[in-house]
Amino acid sequence: MKLSTLTAAAVMVAGVAHAEMVAPTKVAFTEDGAVEASLTGKAGDAAKGAEVYGSKKLGNCVACHEITTQDVAFPGNVGPQLDGVADRWNEAELRGILVNSKMTFEGTVMPAYYKVDGFTRPGKAYTGKAADDTFGPLLSAEQIEDVIAFLMTLKEE
Amino acid sequence: MKFKAMSTIAALAITVPMWAMADPDDDVLVLNGETEMVTKTAAPAHLSDAMDEVMSGWHFRSDETQTMQADDFDNPGMVFVENAMAAWETPEGSEGKSCASCHGAPEDMAGVKPTYPKWNDGAETVYTLQMAMNDCRTKRMGAEAWGYDKGPAIEMVALMSSVSRGMPMNVAIDGPAQATWELGKELYYTRTGQLDLSCANCHEDNYGNMIRADHLSQGQVNGFPAYRLKNAKLNGVHSRFKGCVRDTRAETYKPGSAEFIALELYVSSRANGLSVEGPSVRN
């Protein structure tokens, strides 16, 4: 198939532009909630991922998680510490946790970062108004892949 | 199971020293050096399968903020109570009456605040204190209704609350109010918005934890109206609800809406037994 040829090519030639994106509604999960294929068809950038992780406007993961080697004021503790998280989960599992953590952790409070449907009273960001046609996933496919690349650097063993 | 394992990790993390400070403290709130307030007590019966103890949001605030609330001279919310004392005696509307004309002194209203929201027989619906006050204004004074959670209304609620401080919250959840209470309960446990979070996710499952710099309390309303250092004014219950719903990236309900009235009744019933504290000081 033409599509898979393109995707394979994109994976092999890192940094190739216009790779095929997987839409939020098209993500395929394994039985355990993992997502095998890169959402962008290529590897993410760990440095950019660290930024997405920490930025209040982007992932805001620090609201709930702490990484002890990171110098961040007031990390939250609603979620577990992420030190050594790459020893506990592989890349596909981490991707699943980011795309929709409820597929891995039933009933979790962690938001789904790459999901656009099935919400009750979805709003337009933090305005309190109803969602409009600008509604999209919390993070882009590229940002998700960047965060995964960053999380994969969190190894202790 | 992965889900269980992770929850254990999260629970263990709380014992890390830096975070130990995040637990609610054991301080005692004595108002003006006289009145000892009930800020922790056994959860009301209807909550007993969810939690053992209910706690005022006061326990989750810094020592400085706590101290401010303990003394009327330091409590910035009391300025607004004074405004309301003046309004209490000022005739308004076509009938030439003030609140005082019918109700006497504000202190005579002690015991009213802890029972609201409550069923109103005449209107056949659940009334918040603001709705009851507006009934007086429109029907008995010939004055205009106050806007929901707007300055004059919230100041008067603060006065009504201040004269009841130390009395236990005591809203009725049975009888004709029950259907509204059920609706409020459903709203409390419904996950909303793109973050897909319910009131319970933050205030029942995670109180004591930190969401970034915010120390999550049980989200109790016994301290309302609350003077927030963040916006330097008195804040009403519905306005607080609106902010919390907005923070789930949801379309909010409006202050004064049927949903927030029901939610206020339900959340107030979770505080049954805690002392009325308003105006409280929060950040």
Please describe the structure with a list of short key phrases separated by commas or semicolons:
heterodimer; A: 157 residues; B: alpha+beta; Cytochrome Bc1 Complex, Chain D, domain 2; three-stranded mixed sheet; two-stranded antiparallel sheet; disordered N terminus; SoxAX cytochrome complex subunit A (chain B); metal-binding (chain B); periplasm (chain B); Cyt_c-like_dom_sf (chain B)
Q: Give the tally of structural domains of chain B.
A: 1
Spans of chain A of 5+ residues with little confidence (pLDDT < 50)? 1-17
Radius of gyration based on Cα positions of chain B:
19 Å
Broad shape of chain B: globular
Mean pLDDT of chain B: 93
Cofactor (chain B): heme
GO molecular function, one term (chain B): heme binding
Binding site for heme c 1 (chain B): 99, 102-103, 136
EC number (chain B): 2.8.5.2
Commentary on this structure:
The complex is a heterodimer of chains A (157) and B (283). With 157 residues, chain A is mainly alpha-helical. Chain A is 28% helix and 0% strand. Chain A is globular, with a radius of gyration of 16 Å. Chain B has one domain: Orthogonal Bundle (Cytochrome Bc1 Complex, Chain D, domain 2), CATH 1.10.760. In chain B, a hairpin with a 3-residue loop joins β1 and β2. In chain B, α4 crosses α7 and α8 crosses α11. The longest helix of chain B has 13 residues. The interface between A and B is large, with 39 and 37 residues.
What's the gist of this structure?
The complex is a heterodimer of chains A (157) and B (283). Chain A is mostly helical and 157 residues long.
